[in-house]
Amino acid sequence: MIAESVPGLINPIALLMPLGLVLSAQPLAALTLELPAPVLREETRSALPGSYALPLAAFDGVSVPSRVVEGALDQRAFQLDAPGQTTLAIMTPLRDQVVAAGFTVLFECEARTCGGFDFRFGTDVIPEPDMHVDMGDFRFLSAERDGEVISILVSRTAFAGFVQVVRVTDAPLPEVTVADPQATVVDLDAEEVIRSPDPATGDAAGIGAALAVEGRAALDDLVFDSGSATLSDGDYASLAEVAAWLKAHPDGTIALVGHTDAAGSLAANIALSERRAETVKEALVDLHGADGGRIAAEGVGFLAPRATNETDEGRQKNRRVEVVVTSTR
User: Fold this and answer.
1) Is the pLDDT at 103 greater than 90, yes or no?
2) What structural domains and CATH numbers belong to the chain?
3) Prior bond to 197 cis, omega within 30?
4) pTM (2 decimals)?
5) Is the C-alpha dihedral spanning 239, 275, 200, 222 positive or negative?
6) What's the CA gap between 196 and 214, in Å, rounded?
7) How would you label 66-94 residue by residue, b for 16+ Cβ within 10 Å and e otherwise?
């Protein structure tokens, strides 16, 4: 069976066919899926060993219930020449093929029943422009058969369809020893530990790099008092970086998503988080000359915390606004 663990090294991908794809990993036979329209562009990622949090249920108010699986990871995103085609029309033949191949469907949903924004950002998705997800129009399913799991995410624009397929198959893990020329010996008694930047929070790599890699970033230098939608006085470098990204991507659009701590009711906090997002939008327009027509402002209240609400420090971390790339064209 597939084991639980963490992601690893990048490995070559399998063969892509013009109107379909072959996903293969030893010792299992190849899995062939026929895509319902011609492929305009594709992006592939693979890892051996690799890991994937396979969604098993809709967003539950805190997270997306998932099972972490490990093995040979193959993740692909396809843009299809499918103007006007619905997500149901794209998903249905793919679901039928997965079931015909012997998979048992574990979970399936559409945008609202999945959990919308929170489900989309609670699961692993190849970022824009390779995989576009319309927050109000996407479908998802996860399935498994002996020794492997698969998930399919579909969405669309007015001009194209988008499909992401993630497959993890049982595979032996490579052995690594300290004699390996790629290995690094670390002195755990050293006082200083070098930490890699976290692009999702805008550390070191910068907001622009985070948006390129993850499609989102937290604007961590913004400061809101509890219960307030007013930005505290300060010179916020993150706003300048967001404005610079918009200028560098003239066809791009973003959503500002407000978050709160858990003090108060859900309805009040969703309203507050929306006002916080609007405040940041106004700052981008008024202070940095950004085009407000390319910026949406949304709020999710306290439904997506990233820290405990039991401490002042945790509540401060939860009072934030994140920027999400919604389109690059």
Assistant:
1) yes
2) 16-169 (no CATH), 199-327 (3.30.1330.60)
3) no
4) 0.56
5) positive
6) 15
7) beebbbbbbbbbbbbebeebebeebbeeb
